[in-house]
Amino acid sequence: MTLESIASKFDAPGQVVTVLNIDTGNINDTYRVIKRTTYSEIQFVLQRISQAVFPRPDLVMANMKAITDFAHERLKSQASQSSRIWQLPRVIPTLEGSDYFLDAEGGYWRALSMIASATSHETVISPEHAHEAGYVLGHFQSVIADFPADKLEDTLPGFHITPGYLKQYDSVIKTDGAQQRLAASSEARRIADFVEDRRAFASILEDAVERGELKHRPIHGDPKISNIMIDDITGKGTAIVDLDTVKPGLVHYDFGDCVRSVCNPAGEEAKDLKNVLVDVDLFQTLVSGYLKQARSFLTDADRKYLYDSARLIAFELGLRFFADYLNGDTYFKINYESQNLNRARVQMKLCESIEMRESKLRRVLDAI
Ligand code: GN1
Ligand code: MG
Question: In the chain, what are the helix, strand and coil shares in percent, each to the nearest 5?
Fold first, then answer.
């Protein structure tokens, strides 16, 4: 089936002009569809959901529908008091009224509305941008805070449970393929040592959950910089996209993910490790934006673990990339050989930088 014919299955007016590949995201295949009538144009996002990552795309869509319906109601009811216009993608149904289209090969496709006049970036462009990323994340967490958790299916068991990733890594590293990749690369062996030195640290958040110090709440799951949309007109954050991973978890996973992606100006695909670091000024502005929204719902115990979450999520993502590299790249899409090894090097370097700047980062958190 052609992309054009798949795009026409969804309930949007006009004829398909073109379907453009959007080369972003490590999991799903993403396209921009342009449709026109004689007097108007509409654009929407078309995605094929990765079944290597999400075994039940139908449940991913049920979650997304439930969350967006809930959040749209919230945003509408708050709109008259809000000082900005918040946007959130809408699930565009198929002509038959389903949340997804199933093609003849068993592929799951969905259509989502585009966020109007807004842009996202792969790397941070200014301190103001970092502030907005924090602000948008805190706002989204507050909007979904009382979404009933029992209405969400767990479509990705173990997501952000670092000790679980460590277990998977331990079984992958024993395989012949992994041993060959390790033997062939001193960088890979260095990362393996880096992981060994941080084994005890990996359970810091889950231990706090176990002790009852931290509690699960609905979270975004993937609030990296490129999922945050900045309004082209005002320069302010207007939306957070990519709602595949909304589920109960720790707000720390979100905070850590936002920090690791926003406060490393070199970005997660950097090749030159010397540019990879946590920028303390960007961290300060991100935290100030985040707390404007999150102060009202964070407990003292939550705040105690914010530093650790930044360190942990950088480490965790490094570990996930590294394990995938050793496992033959079955989870994260790659464009070149050893890309997942390179991504792992970046996150581990960032983790190290976060460790080296610990006292400065903690001071920022204590001061705001
Ligand atoms: C994946 O492909 P994308 O942008 O949706 C991954 C995130 C990672 C991110 C790193 C479901 O997100 O956890 O942080 O790559 N998503 C999933 O870029 O594993
Ligand atoms: Mg995602």
Answer: 50, 15, 35
